[in-house]
C-alpha cells in the first residue's frame, strides 16, 4: 500500500465521480440538442463513460467497505462514515441499473427522457455522496496521517494566503481519531455502542 494513504478508496472514487458525471453531461447534451452534428458520437462516448464508471464503481465500493471496517475512527466519525455508506450503496445500485438499461437501449439513436431524468437524479446523489466522503477527511480527519500545527510563518508580500484569527484545527479541538478497530468479518453494527477506552 502506498505509504501516504491507508486505503485505495480515495483514489478510485475520483474515477467513479468523473466518469459517471461526464456520462450524465454528455447524455443531457445529446438529449437537449437532437440536431447536433456529433450527437451520435456524444451518445457513444456517454455510454462508454457510464459503463466504465459503473465497472470501476464495483472496485470503489469494495475499497470503501474495506476502509469502513479498518480506518481508525471515533464515535462521531463512525456516524459520519455510516451516513456516507448509506448514500453510496443506493447511488451505486442506481448507476448499475442505468448502465444495464443503457446497454439495452444502445440500438436506439434517440435518448430516452426518462433515462436522462434518472441519470441526473443519480448524479445529484453521487455529488452528495462525494461531499459526505470529503467531510470524512476534511472535517473528521479520517485516514489523515498528520495534521499541520498552527504557527507563525512568513509569506511573500503579495501573497493572498491569509490566516484566520483561529486555526481550523483549534476550532475542531480534535486530534487524530482514536483506534476503533474491527475484525475483518465484523458486520460493523451501526447500533452497536462503541467503547473507546475513555
Structure commentary:
The two termini are about 30 Å apart. This protein has about 200 residues and is mainly alpha-helical. It contains five helices and no strands. Helices cover about 60% and strands about 0% of the residues. The longest helix is centred in the middle third of the chain and has 31 residues. The protein is elongated and about 60 Å long.
Number of helices: 5
Bin the strand percentage: under 5%
Helix content: 55-70%
Round the Cα radius of gyration to an integer and report it: 21 Å
Major sheet description: none
Structural class: mainly alpha
E-strand count: 0
**pLDDT < 50 stretches:** 164-176, 183-187, 191-198
The shape, in one word, is elongated
Element-by-element helix/strand order? HHHHH
In round numbers, the mean pLDDT is 79
What is the straight-line distance between the termini? 31 Å
Write the layout of secondary structure elements.
Blueprint lengths: L8 H24 L6 H30 L6 H31 L7 H26 L29 H5 L26
Descriptive tags:
mainly alpha, elongated
Brief digest:
With 198 residues, this protein is mainly alpha-helical. The protein has helices spanning 9-32, 39-68, 75-105, 113-138, 168-172.
